[in-house]
Predict the 3D structure of the following.
Amino acid sequence: MIGICVIGALLLVLALNLGEPSTVAADVSSELPDGPAAASSAATTATGSSSTEEATTAGTAGKKGTEGDPKKGTEKGTKKPADRRVTASAEPAQSQQELRRIRRLARSVSAGGIDPVIGPLSVRVGTFNILGSQHTGPGGDKGAGWPGWAARMPGTIERIKAHGASVVGLQEAQPDQIASLTRGTGYAIFPGSGTNSLDRVNSIIYDPGVFEFVSGSTFQMSNGIGTRAQPILLLRHRESGREIYFVNAHPPSGHSGSQTATRMGTFTRLVSEVNRLKATGHPVVLTGDMNDRAPFFCRVVAPTGMVASAGGSTSGGCRPPARMPVDWVVATSGVTFSNNWLDDSTIKRRITDHPFISATATIAGD
């Protein structure tokens, strides 16, 4: 108990150095054994942008290779649709990072251990347009040459497991596909099964043994004929306590003048959402079928300072990667990618009409 008190005092000193004495002291004391939770609740406040619709607060509950080689990777109702936003703090990102570091240390002390140094974290992340079951069902636009979802499902599940991705952004996911995928993988999903089916086509699935749900929200974006919800999911890595934002998006396709203009508008919206989340100090990983190549890289990756698993550079100009499908895995600075795997066996086997792309995202320590 004496040791815990000493650590608590040290944490308080660190909090005072940050210039947030009352707020941080309450936050830390609530996470120490027998800490005054009520005081923390009264003292700790959130600042920043307000929500236009309350955020979703519960989710449905429930590494590996260079390109072509999975074995080299590592992993250690009537209203107009409104955006559902998470609250972002207006404090500088560096201060936010220090505050999170204090909280992680406090949790470590509470658990009986002391580990103030947080090392790099590596996780496998993927994006997978699974081809909506309506496209290959009776009357579907893919034609008789494509098998239905029941025949494609085993291969879809097998590929998710083969990539070993702890988090996967899905596109075109229909209710029957979501049910079989979560059952077959054991993964949790956001948005959950209780939401409107149109709000679930861009769901994010994740391994609940690796990550735990913190919060989830959505924002509306055009799909060319209407709007669709794009999810924002904040997950906490169970082992390290690190928290990461995952965003999954599917801008509209088409290359007519109006379709291209609509897609460019969605890119502008993505830049806004990513920059808003960056202000919290959390890493942000963006996945999706962006229905574009160089324009996405130059209009989204470059202005947000993100990096792409496929490579490319935005230093001194926009230089997209040499090989780039319309499917992307990108992340904010502080995240590096390795073992990018563009798996087009999914197309050759007619599992879907898109490759499965995954990469190891390594988040710098603090």
